[in-house]
Specification:
alpha/beta, 5-stranded parallel sheet, two-stranded parallel sheet, 9 strands
Length: about 160
Protein backbone atom coordinates (compact mmCIF):
# COMPACT_ATOMS: atom_id res chain seq x y z
CA UNK A 1 0.00 0.00 0.00
CA UNK A 2 2.84 2.36 0.86
CA UNK A 3 4.29 1.79 -2.63
CA UNK A 4 1.06 2.96 -4.23
CA UNK A 5 1.16 6.26 -2.35
CA UNK A 6 4.83 6.76 -3.26
CA UNK A 7 4.03 6.10 -6.92
CA UNK A 8 1.29 8.74 -6.87
CA UNK A 9 3.70 11.22 -5.29
CA UNK A 10 6.27 10.69 -8.05
CA UNK A 11 3.65 11.01 -10.80
CA UNK A 12 2.63 14.11 -12.72
CA UNK A 13 -0.88 14.13 -14.16
CA UNK A 14 -1.05 15.85 -17.54
CA UNK A 15 -4.42 16.71 -19.03
CA UNK A 16 -6.14 19.24 -21.28
CA UNK A 17 -8.85 20.33 -18.85
CA UNK A 18 -11.92 19.28 -20.83
CA UNK A 19 -14.98 18.15 -18.88
CA UNK A 20 -15.21 14.46 -18.08
CA UNK A 21 -12.05 12.34 -17.96
CA UNK A 22 -9.60 15.27 -18.21
CA UNK A 23 -11.21 17.26 -15.42
CA UNK A 24 -11.57 14.20 -13.17
CA UNK A 25 -7.83 13.57 -13.42
CA UNK A 26 -6.95 17.18 -12.61
CA UNK A 27 -9.43 17.35 -9.71
CA UNK A 28 -8.05 14.09 -8.33
CA UNK A 29 -4.48 15.38 -8.57
CA UNK A 30 -5.38 18.62 -6.77
CA UNK A 31 -7.33 16.77 -4.06
CA UNK A 32 -4.39 14.42 -3.40
CA UNK A 33 -1.58 16.97 -3.83
CA UNK A 34 -0.22 15.16 -6.88
CA UNK A 35 1.63 17.33 -9.38
CA UNK A 36 -0.43 18.26 -12.42
CA UNK A 37 -0.16 20.34 -15.56
CA UNK A 38 -0.51 20.20 -19.30
CA UNK A 39 -1.74 22.24 -22.20
CA UNK A 40 -5.19 23.74 -22.73
CA UNK A 41 -6.58 25.70 -25.67
CA UNK A 42 -6.00 29.46 -25.93
CA UNK A 43 -8.56 31.23 -23.76
CA UNK A 44 -8.62 28.20 -21.41
CA UNK A 45 -11.55 26.90 -23.46
CA UNK A 46 -13.61 23.87 -22.43
CA UNK A 47 -17.13 22.75 -23.29
CA UNK A 48 -18.47 24.26 -20.05
CA UNK A 49 -16.73 27.63 -20.45
CA UNK A 50 -13.41 28.99 -19.24
CA UNK A 51 -11.19 26.68 -17.19
CA UNK A 52 -10.69 27.72 -13.59
CA UNK A 53 -7.25 29.15 -12.75
CA UNK A 54 -6.72 26.45 -10.11
CA UNK A 55 -5.84 24.08 -12.95
CA UNK A 56 -2.11 24.51 -13.59
CA UNK A 57 -2.42 24.44 -17.38
CA UNK A 58 -0.60 26.44 -20.03
CA UNK A 59 -2.50 27.85 -22.99
CA UNK A 60 -1.50 26.82 -26.49
CA UNK A 61 -1.25 29.52 -29.18
CA UNK A 62 -4.41 28.12 -30.81
CA UNK A 63 -7.93 27.77 -29.45
CA UNK A 64 -8.22 24.46 -31.33
CA UNK A 65 -8.57 21.42 -29.08
CA UNK A 66 -6.38 19.37 -31.41
CA UNK A 67 -3.27 21.43 -30.63
CA UNK A 68 -3.53 20.89 -26.89
CA UNK A 69 -4.26 17.21 -27.47
CA UNK A 70 -1.12 16.85 -29.56
CA UNK A 71 1.09 18.77 -27.17
CA UNK A 72 -0.11 16.77 -24.14
CA UNK A 73 0.60 13.49 -25.92
CA UNK A 74 3.97 14.76 -27.15
CA UNK A 75 5.08 16.03 -23.73
CA UNK A 76 4.04 13.02 -21.65
CA UNK A 77 5.59 9.59 -21.17
CA UNK A 78 2.35 7.84 -22.03
CA UNK A 79 -1.39 8.28 -22.29
CA UNK A 80 -4.32 6.54 -20.67
CA UNK A 81 -7.71 7.04 -22.27
CA UNK A 82 -10.75 6.49 -20.08
CA UNK A 83 -14.25 5.83 -21.32
CA UNK A 84 -17.44 4.13 -20.27
CA UNK A 85 -18.23 2.45 -23.58
CA UNK A 86 -15.73 0.51 -25.67
CA UNK A 87 -16.10 2.69 -28.77
CA UNK A 88 -14.31 6.04 -28.84
CA UNK A 89 -14.77 8.95 -31.24
CA UNK A 90 -13.25 12.21 -32.58
CA UNK A 91 -10.84 13.83 -30.14
CA UNK A 92 -10.23 10.59 -28.30
CA UNK A 93 -9.39 8.84 -31.58
CA UNK A 94 -7.03 11.72 -32.37
CA UNK A 95 -5.27 11.06 -29.07
CA UNK A 96 -4.67 7.43 -30.09
CA UNK A 97 -3.36 8.49 -33.52
CA UNK A 98 -1.02 11.04 -31.95
CA UNK A 99 0.35 8.50 -29.48
CA UNK A 100 1.25 6.31 -32.47
CA UNK A 101 2.80 9.29 -34.29
CA UNK A 102 5.00 10.17 -31.31
CA UNK A 103 5.64 6.50 -30.48
CA UNK A 104 4.25 6.93 -26.97
CA UNK A 105 2.56 4.12 -25.07
CA UNK A 106 -1.20 4.45 -24.92
CA UNK A 107 -3.91 2.37 -23.29
CA UNK A 108 -7.69 2.55 -23.38
CA UNK A 109 -9.42 1.69 -20.12
CA UNK A 110 -13.11 1.09 -20.52
CA UNK A 111 -15.60 0.55 -17.71
CA UNK A 112 -17.85 -1.69 -19.79
CA UNK A 113 -15.20 -4.37 -20.39
CA UNK A 114 -16.13 -6.64 -17.50
CA UNK A 115 -13.53 -9.33 -18.25
CA UNK A 116 -10.62 -6.98 -17.48
CA UNK A 117 -9.78 -5.43 -14.10
CA UNK A 118 -9.31 -1.74 -14.98
CA UNK A 119 -7.23 -0.95 -11.88
CA UNK A 120 -4.76 -3.77 -12.56
CA UNK A 121 -4.64 -2.82 -16.23
CA UNK A 122 -3.85 0.80 -15.29
CA UNK A 123 -1.17 -0.13 -12.73
CA UNK A 124 0.49 -2.56 -15.13
CA UNK A 125 0.62 0.12 -17.84
CA UNK A 126 2.32 2.60 -15.49
CA UNK A 127 4.81 0.01 -14.29
CA UNK A 128 5.60 -1.53 -17.67
CA UNK A 129 6.44 1.80 -19.30
CA UNK A 130 7.89 3.62 -16.27
CA UNK A 131 5.39 6.45 -16.65
CA UNK A 132 6.20 9.60 -14.68
CA UNK A 133 4.35 12.23 -16.77
CA UNK A 134 0.96 10.63 -17.41
CA UNK A 135 -1.41 12.15 -19.93
CA UNK A 136 -5.00 11.34 -18.97
CA UNK A 137 -7.58 11.79 -21.68
CA UNK A 138 -10.97 10.44 -22.58
CA UNK A 139 -14.56 11.25 -23.21
CA UNK A 140 -16.25 14.51 -22.35
CA UNK A 141 -18.95 14.78 -19.71
CA UNK A 142 -21.51 15.68 -22.39
CA UNK A 143 -20.90 12.32 -24.10
CA UNK A 144 -20.45 10.12 -21.03
CA UNK A 145 -21.48 11.83 -17.78
CA UNK A 146 -20.32 8.79 -15.74
CA UNK A 147 -16.70 9.02 -16.96
CA UNK A 148 -15.75 11.64 -14.34
CA UNK A 149 -16.58 9.30 -11.45
CA UNK A 150 -15.03 6.31 -13.24
CA UNK A 151 -11.66 8.09 -13.56
CA UNK A 152 -11.74 9.22 -9.92
CA UNK A 153 -12.51 5.66 -8.76
CA UNK A 154 -9.69 4.12 -10.80
CA UNK A 155 -7.17 6.67 -9.53
CA UNK A 156 -8.32 6.16 -5.93
CA UNK A 157 -8.13 2.38 -6.18
CA UNK A 158 -4.76 2.47 -7.97
CA UNK A 159 -2.99 4.84 -5.58
CA UNK A 160 -4.75 5.16 -2.25
CA UNK A 161 -4.54 2.68 0.65
Amino acid sequence: METRILLANSLKIVSGGQTGADRAALDWAIAHQVSHGGWCPKGRKAEDGILDARYNLTETPSSEYSERTEWNVRDSDGTVIFSIDKEIFEGTLLTVELAKKYEKPCIHICRNLTDINPVSQFQLFLSKFGIVNLNIAGTRASGEPEVYQFVREILDRAFLP
